[in-house]
Amino acid sequence: MEAPDPAAEEPQETDPEHSLQRRVAYRFSILANLSARCLAEMYTRRFGITMADWKTLAIVGHYEPVFPGWIARRTSMVPERVSRALDRLMEKGLVDRTLDREDRRRIVVTLSSRGRKAFAEIEAVRTAMEEELLGVLSAQEREALFAMLDKLDAHARDAFGEPQAWKRFAKAG
């Protein structure tokens, strides 16, 4: 008797009432990871950058000039990780760091000319991927999705943004 092919089987959840498929963060995570891994293969091969490097480069490209602390807040990466990503991006000639003219204690980050080309190339691929993903939705569904995401984003920042916010949701023990 042949063993069943584990790849062909779809296991049943042990607690369907609390299904992973009904958990928003889980579903968002799966969607984000699928697209991020696909895009990461491209930018790793083409530019030799990591996912943290891309997150940093994307924030700089969309909002420049920016400060490293602001990048950390926008990416939810710890400041040390942003600093390491900025160091790698500097070494590759993709970003420039200068002192802020108004406050010489602050560093200002911008894309270099090479960084602009890399950013544009990666963004073109990312845009095409997102169009493919969202192509299954009507224009009205897309607008509704983004309105809901905006609402959830604002609420999540309020509800979960503070250190140890989880304690509000834990049962007293």
Characterise this structure.
This protein has 6 helices and 2 strands, in the order ααααββαα. The protein has a single domain, classed as Arc Repressor Mutant, subunit A (Orthogonal Bundle). It is mainly alpha-helical and 173 residues long. Helices cover 59% and strands 6% of the residues. The N and C termini lie far apart (51 Å). A two-stranded antiparallel sheet has the order 1-2. The protein is globular. α2 packs across α3, α2 packs across α4 and α3 packs across α4.
Tally of DSSP β-strands? 2
**Rg:** 20 Å
Structural class: mainly alpha
Known CATH architecture: Orthogonal Bundle
Oligomer: single chain
* Span of the ends, CA to CA: 51 Å
| Count of separate structural domains | 1
The spatial strand order of the largest sheet comes to 1-2
Low-confidence region ranges: none
Mean pLDDT over all positions: 89
Helix content: 55-70%
The CATH class, by name, is Mainly Alpha
Shape: globular
Counting DSSP H or I runs of 4 or more residues, the number of helices is 6
Largest sheet: 2 strands, antiparallel
Short key terms for the protein model shown above:
6 helices; 173 residues; mainly alpha; globular; Arc Repressor Mutant, subunit A
List the helices and strands and how they pair.
Blueprint: H1 24-47, H2 51-63, H3 68-75, H4 79-91, E1 95-99, E2 107-111, H5 113-134, H6 139-160
Antiparallel strand pairs: 1-2
Helix pairs in contact: 1-5, 2-3, 2-4, 3-4
